[in-house]
Amino acid sequence: MIVIVLYALVFLTGNHKPTPKLGIDLQGGTRVTLTARTPDGGQPTRESLNQARQIIERRVNGIGVSGTEVLLDGTNVVITVPGEQGDQAKNLGKTAKLGFRKVVANATQPVVPPQTAPPATTPPTSGAPKSSTPPPSGAPSATSGAPSTKNGGGGAPGAALAQQQTTTPAAPSSSTTPPASTPAPAPSDGSVDAQTAQEIQAAKAVRQNPQLIGADGQPNQELVAKAMASLTCAPNAKDPLEGNDDPKLPLVACGDHDTYKYLLEPEFLPGTEIADSTSGYDQQRGQWVVNLSFKSDGTKTWADFTSKNQGQQAAFVLDTQVVSAPNIQVAILDGNTQITGKFTQSEAKDLSDILKYGSLPLSFSSSDATTVSATLGLASLQAGLIAGGIGLLVVFVYCLFYYRLLGVLTILSLALSGALVFAVLILLGRWIGYTLDLAGIAGLIIAIGITADSFVIYFERLKDEIREGRTFRSAVPRGWVRARRTILASDGVSFLAAAILYVIAVGDVQGFAFTLGMSTVLDLVVVYLVTHPLVAMVSTSKNEFLSNPRHLGLGAVQQVGSQRKKSTSVGRANVKEA
């Protein structure tokens, strides 16, 4: 009855196909593990992790691949994308922390960035704020609603922000340089490694020093020179502040494809005020752009800023990187703006999707990225099935050789147990998204031994009862009462071990523990509802072939029981004569 109900659910729900949900190591795909980082190196809260998981899940769904999965594993977010379209998943962990800051000064990036800060009295050309030269014609710019013709881009027409032009920052202050703040000590809870936490705090102390800009709005020449000298702008350079900058503090950051270093004021408009984002091709500029529209409060803030700061630069900062820093020519009042930055089509679309679905409350580093081809996945699945088949065959041969007809009952019970496990795996894949991987198959193979062990315990207890002189019919109920205690204890220990392993383990080991524990529970179901009733039915059968102990592998023990019974009878007779 249970089998009928389970397979009715299999064929009447979901895609109506008896196919379990397979992991990427069996069907091919990409798995990316992202490790959360906090600015102070502390333990991220569960609420922020759940929020990050939901945002990443929306980004993953935007790829358009079915069967994707985003799970929390401690402080890690694990992204699984089946098939051959998982390369985009490797970029889904970008914080996408977008903010709008006013540019105070910028400097051209030298070919070889200085490694140490120069003397305060003579700052280098690359580090000191100065009047910037106009960038090339392809420099980043932003417009209000420039029309786009591809990929869903486009916005309402309106005023424009022209190409970045020459700006003259205010003269640096001559005030005495105060000492930089000491970086915070590394955390001791193990949530983030000590080196990473120290790098974040050290970079923040130099590049986000509150005294980079004085109370009069003037940049501190010595501190700015030191901050720019400490910053390496290169395509493969790792920025420890990426996604961890404080929006309430000034910032020194790279921009314009690592050709400029910018000194920026605190953030005046957060990226959370973006209402929508699309990508498209701007025919006038001949480049891919990202079109933004703000919410009501964001529209007002943007309008006020562009009205009061005409002739100044506004920087669009994404994950501590300036992606665009145009000059403000006229006020933008309708809340429609355009970001350009020499994007390719895929870069524009990825940025648009990330901004649309929101920024992450935490920054993440990619700690592991695994890609398995569909061919290798199929080979792994075949290897797992062959291993399981060999295990079953060995158990079948042993049972038939040692228990004969009882071995046939064992084979029937194992077949039914396999059918139950298969149906449950299909339904769990549909209901809770469980995926069967190689580790899970290993758990199922080991569970074959656990299930066979229950049968051995039962049958050996029957032999013990028959050795004591009982018939097969009378031995079955007595043997079952004693055997089920041992079976419960054995399966209880196995399930407890699997449960503990599932709780303390991570990744693939959890899949192993899950299938092992599930198979152990189903073993009890099969032994109680299938194996014992079948044995009891055979013991009460009037068919001489079925009830013959020799055909059940019990002939030898029956002879031993008969001899003991005769010995007992002779002993009793002698006692009576005496």
From TrEMBL:
Domain Protein export membrane protein SecD/SecF C-terminal span(s) in chain numbering: 364-539
Positions of the SecDF P1 head subdomain domain: 259-361
Annotated signal sequence range: none
Low complexity composition bias: residue spans: 139-150, 158-179
Transmembrane residue ranges: 376-401, 408-432, 438-459, 487-505, 511-531
Main localization category: membrane
Biased composition (Pro residues): 111-122
Biological process annotations from GO: intracellular protein transmembrane transport; protein targeting; protein transport by the Sec complex
Example of a GO MF term: protein-transporting ATPase activity
Keyword Transport: yes
Function: Part of the Sec protein translocase complex. Interacts with the SecYEG preprotein conducting channel. SecDF uses the proton motive force (PMF) to complete protein translocation after the ATP-dependent function of SecA.
Family, per entry: Belongs to the SecD/SecF family. SecD subfamily.
PANTHER family in the cross-refs: PROTEIN TRANSLOCASE SUBUNIT SECD, PROTEIN-EXPORT MEMBRANE PROTEIN SEC
Identification of the protein by name: Protein translocase subunit SecD
Species in which this protein is naturally found: Amycolatopsis vastitatis
The organism's taxonomic lineage, starting at the top: Bacteria, Bacillati, Actinomycetota, Actinomycetes, Pseudonocardiales
